[in-house]
Amino acid sequence: MSRAVRLIFSELRFRKLNAALSLLSVTAAAALFVAFYTLTEAQERETRRVTRDLGFNLRIVSRETEMDRFYADGFSEKTLSEDAVHRLVQHPNLSYNHLVATLQGRYQLQGNDVLLTGISPEYAPPGRKKKPMIFSIERGKAYVGFHVAQRLGLRQGDPLELGGRTFHVERTLAESGTNDDIRITANLADVQAVLGLPGRINEIKAIDCLCLTPDENPLGILRSELEAAVPEAKVVMLRSMAETRARQRQSAEKYFALLTPIILIGCAICIGALAMLNVNDRRQEIGLFRAMGNSSASVMGLFLGKAVIIGVIGALLGYFAGLELAVAFGPHIFPQTSAAIGFSANLFGLALFAVPAFTVLASFLPAAAAATQDPAVVLREG
Q1: What is the DSSP letter of 120?
Q2: Type and span of the H or E element at 28
Q3: Are residues 304 and 200 in the same domain?
Q4: Shared domain check, 91 and 213
């Protein structure tokens, strides 16, 4: 062990109160930051989940769609090749996610008008695997809307004849108060066969991942990407939903960006103040040390070395204290994504590097003040 390290540990043992207060400040700063960072990540995950659950905000239909009929009917009568969704998914740098191909149309079932809808499995661009937003429907299964089930007396497990094919009612849905109450939903391939439109779809539903508000023109970006990937289609954005999703995410990011500097500045002031108190308390000792021929760099090395040691110990204690705080309070605040709150190797490594560096930075001015003291003046004052 070098002479400087021995001196640092000797000083820590001799001035236990200052060392304990300094360690407590660094530990508290690290714990506060780790807990705040962990909970902010949880908030971002929760925000993504909540905004995702708002539903699809992009509707991609044939470019030939007559929009007045589209809005009146709720779907396009013009169809696209099912290959369109695969081309869109494979397009590089895509700003679309959670893509689902659908085919829907009116269908007469025992004298009742129903909306027959086929849905594909959910697609995500390569390298962006996401938890599906919607359920997947097996071949031969059907989900029946509330009104249809009541009119036809259908229950779960009952057979259902559609276009000469026998389906089994997988589930009858609760009343929604929307046109979903007259909808029968099945696998895309099954509905294509029933409607006599193999390999065709009339809409791709998606979510944009730009997180831009309408005033930032996300639609222009989305349309240019769609033009390159699927030129025979056009995109319609549900603006209110897109704006809600974007503003919610942006508010979470601004919250973190605002509070992080405030926390760091407050902790730096506390650590720096304790370091300055330590310098003032050791003025005579520093003067004698300098009078014995030790350089200013040696004095600074002692103070900064002490900061490094306290920083490393404080990082270790603070990380696990902060993690415990996040684990204790996170599930109550963010119930949907609480399972993801836990140990992070990346954050642990960052804490071990950043906390000592931060402690050194906060102690630099007091250390410089100690190193520049004139030993003659200090000893004369004593």
Answers
A1: P
A2: helix 16-52
A3: no
A4: yes
Selection from 268, 118, 130 nearest residue 199 by Cα? 118
CA dihedral 277, 281, 285, 288 (to 10 degrees): 90
Q: Report which of 299, 225, 229 is spatially closest to residue 86, judged by C-alpha positions.
A: 229
Of 181, 202, 237, which marks where a domain is finished? 237
Taken in order 321, 322, 326, 329, the sign of the CA dihedral is positive
How many structural domains comprise the chain?
A: 2
Count of Cβ atoms closer than 10 Å to residue 380 Cβ: 9
Distance of alpha carbon 306 from alpha carbon 292, whole angstroms: 21
DSSP string, 46-101: HHHHHHHTT---EEEEETT--HHHHHHHSS-SS-EETHHHHHHHHSTT--EEEEEE
221/88 same-domain check = yes
What is the token pair recorded at 197? 């439109």
Among 237, 261, 277, the domain-final residue is: 237
| Domain of 103, in residue numbers | 58-237
Are 341 and 330 in contact, with CB atoms under 8 Å apart? yes
pTM of full prediction above 0.85: no
pLDDT tens across the length of the chain (382 residues): 466 666 666 666 666 776 777 788 888 888 888 887 887 777 766 666 655 555 677 889 999 999 988 888 888 999 999 999 988 888 887 777 788 999 999 999 888 889 999 999 888 777 666 666 667 889 999 999 999 999 999 999 999 999 889 999 999 999 988 888 999 999 999 999 999 999 999 999 888 766 555 556 677 778 888 888 889 999 887 766 556 666 666 666 676 677 777 777 777 777 777 777 766 665 655 655 555 655 666 767 777 777 888 889 888 998 999 888 888 877 776 766 666 677 788 888 888 888 888 788 877 776 676 666 655 554 555 5
- Does 62 share its domain with 187? yes
Question: Is residue 331 domain-shared with residue 365, that is, in the same domain?
Answer: yes
Considering the domain boundaries, does residue 242 fall inside one?
no
Beta strands in 134-262 (DSSP E): 141-144, 159-162, 165-172, 183-187, 200-201, 203-208, 233-237
User: Do residues 115 and 231 share a domain?
Assistant: yes
Q: Letter for the amino acid at 368?
A: A
Regarding whether 264 and 189 lie in a shared domain, the answer is: no
